TrEMBL record:
Protein name as catalogued: Glycoside hydrolase family 2 sugar binding
Organism whose genome encodes this protein: Halorhabdus utahensis (strain DSM 12940 / JCM 11049 / AX-2)
Xref: SUPFAM superfamilies: (Trans)glycosidases (SSF51445), beta-Galactosidase/glucuronidase domain (SSF49303), Galactose-binding domain-like (SSF49785)
Domain Glycoside hydrolase family 2 immunoglobulin-like beta-sandwich: 151-251
GO biological-process terms attached to the record: carbohydrate metabolic process
Keywords linked to the UniProt accession: Glycosidase, Hydrolase
Length: 624
């Protein structure tokens, strides 16, 4: 997140109340103490919540003040004393309002927050996210910035990496309290102690008194140090500073290019890459470290926009972010509203080097309503539902056209049958068995390039109470026991589908969810962060270098395939144990490739097979 200009925190005590949305300035009879920023659970499910705080005049002589609210969910109106300051309708974009004309010696700030009035609440307006995580409010930050004659309101940068060129396209928005005819200074230098060239340059800026003006400037970077996902390289970053007299603003960014096409697959900084990811339903910064613990190098922000702190954690850890527009579920949406939000979303987050991809519409149709097995009639039912699925891609593609070059666009994420740009794939859960993934993708090869979600759900506790968003009917179709059986089934599905996708060479694969938000869910972590059984299975299947059986069946023979996602060649020693017998083979495999190393016979009575790579301390065990 861009560093703010000198700021004064004045509002330490807040109170809140339920109010009716819209109408005149709210004036509730009673108020309750709350923490701001935050999501006070006492107001879960409210139609609107008003927040009130008082503060002294923060300005000194010749100073001005701007209120900055971040994460205002989702639509808001703001008053200072009895003066209406303005409204806001995009929680991922900071709200900045001048306070000067309404300031008094003692001041009352009132912010009314309400849920969205359109389709763009995303996951927060579904039963997948508990009401206490979707409380209308000020979620991320509140501040007052003070300044004198001129103020840099905002600084953004778009990283650009071409064949032999690297640069930042920078934009600075300046508010001129008095007439301005000066020069704005831009500087850039490597972050922290990293070596590299810095630069400084100045450009003219003019504005009339009371005017806002935006300056655009291109900063060329010689001998660039690129930002890489954590399993491909270092997370080199740069600090950009804009300075006008004594007022300045900084942001931290990085140089990274991401491309995806049918012929070359996914490439980061022109290097082939397999993106191994997990989905986030209501992301928090700690989820990035949890994803890295799973050997993931990508997270998908599923139908919501995380805070800048989540993006900052991803940049530091070397994790790519696939960002959804907050739009999910069947039904039409306002195309112009979608275009507007997409442009504002990109502008707010494009300086993050890990911002890799964006989607518009998630799960626009429902193909499987309730569980379907793998029998003949169930397969016919699934084919019929897919045949009848109908979705018009044009609105999502029109919105996606707002995304600039350099960010991969996947307009539609959905199930087979609607020709999605990224597939929601649920064999072993919504339909069939996990092993049916091969047959499904062989018949529909266009579906396996980018898989946006897959997996199965499980219980997190023995007697779940809060199971909103969890399809208990589907779960009970597959599992008749308690937590142990439930988590064992989830483990089996996730391990099988992950491995089959890697064997197929899928470019991007995203396991459905990292963390449950209730007592049960699609996550590999329970609500309290405790690992479920599927956690270690997914971490093992996501190992950058892993040995896998092409056909893990008792009473047959199977090739052993070693998959190497690293950008370097790998030499190692493969060992295996099956039916009390052991064997070994040398491994030599090129960067970002797969290779059949050997073939082994599997006895009819074999119960387990273990493959191990000594040099990478990796093992893979199959229960037969």
């Amino acid at each position: 997140m861009p560093a703010a200009a000198p700021a004064t925190r004045m509002m330490n005590e807040w109170r809140a109340a339920r109010v009716e949305p819209g109408g005149d300035r709210p004036d509730p009879a009673t108020w309750e103490p709350v923490e701001v920023p935050g999501r006070p659970a006492a107001f879960a499910g409210a139609d609107a919540v008003a927040y009130r705080s008082t503060f002294a005049d923060p300005t000194a002589e010749d100073e001005h003040a701007t209120l900055v609210l971040e994460g205002v969910y989702a639509h808001a109106r703001v008053w200072l004393n009895d003066t209406f300051l303005g409204e806001h309708d995009a929680y991922f974009e900071p709200l900045r309002l001048r306070l000067d004309a309404a300031l008094a010696a003692e001041n009352e700030l009132l912010v009314e927050c309400r849920p969205p009035e359109d389709r763009f609440g995303g996951s927060y307006e579904t039963d997948e996210v508990p009401d206490e995580l979707a409380v209308p409010g000020i979620w991320w930050d509140v501040d007052v910035e003070t300044y004198t004659d001129h103020h840099i309101l905002d600084l953004s940068a778009r990283p650009r990496v071409d064949d032999e060129d690297a640069r930042f396209d920078v934009r600075a928005t300046v508010l001129a309290e008095t007439a301005l005819d000066d020069r704005l200074t831009f500087s850039v230098k490597p972050e922290g102690s990293r070596r590299g060239r810095g630069m400084m340059d100045r450009t003219a800026i003019e504005a009339d008194a009371g005017e806002r003006t935006t300056v655009e400037y291109t900063i060329d970077i010689r001998d660039p140090a690129l930002w890489w996902p954590h399993d491909l390289g270092e997370q080199n970053r740069y600090v950009i500073r804009a300075k006008l007299d004594d007022d300045e603003r900084t942001l931290t960014t990085g140089l990274c290019s991401v491309d995806d096409d049918e012929s070359d697959g996914l490439r980061v900084n022109d290097t082939p890459m397999t993106a191994r990811g997990v989905g986030l339903l209501a992301a928090e910064p700690e989820d990035i470290e949890r994803a890295v613990d799973l050997n993931a190098n990508l997270v998908r922000a599923h139908a919501h926009v995380p805070s800048p702190a989540v993006y900052e954690a991803a940049d530091e850890a070397g994790v790519l972010v696939w960002q959804d527009l907050p739009l999910t579920g069947p039904g039409p949406f306002d195309i112009e509203r979608g275009r507007d939000l997409t442009g504002r979303l990109v502008s707010a987050y494009e300086h993050h080097p890990g911002f890799a991809a964006i989607s518009v519409h998630d799960d626009p149709v429902t193909v499987s309503d309730g569980p379907l097995g793998s029998g003949f009639l169930d397969r016919l039912r699934l084919r019929w539902r897919r045949f009848r699925a109908d979705y018009d891609h044009e609105p999502a593609e029109t919105v996606a056209a707002e995304v600039p070059d350099g960010i991969v666009t996947l307009p539609v994420v959905g199930p087979p049958g609607i020709e999605p740009d990224a597939t929601s794939l649920y064999p072993g859960w919504r339909y069939g068995q996990a092993v049916d993934v091969d047959q499904l993708l062989e018949r529909n090869p266009s579906l396996d390039s980018v898989v946006g979600e897959y997996g199965a759900g499980s219980l997190g506790v023995e007697d779940p109470v809060d199971v909103d968003g969890f399809d208990r009917e589907v779960h009970d179709y597959h599992v008749s026991g308690g937590v142990e059986d439930s988590q064992a089934y989830q483990r089996s599905v996730i391990a099988t589908v992950t491995e089959r996708l890697r064997l197929r060479g899928t470019d991007v694969l995203v396991a459905g969810s990292l963390r449950d938000l209730g007592d049960a869910g699609m996550g590999v972590l329970a609500r309290d962060g405790t690992p479920k059984d599927a956690h270690d299975a997914l971490a093992s299947a996501f190992e950058p270098v892993q040995a896998m059986l092409a056909d893990p069946r008792a009473g047959g023979e199977s090739d052993v395939v070693v998959h190497n996602d690293l950008p370097t060649d790998v030499t190692d020693r493969l060992t295996w144990e099956v039916g009390g017998e052991t064997g070994e083979a040398d491994v030599a495999i090129g960067a970002a490739s797969s290779e059949t190393v050997t073939s082994i016979s599997i006895p009819q009575d074999a119960e387990t097979i273990t493959l191990s790579l000594a040099g990478h301390s990796v093992s893979n065990t199959y229960q037969l």
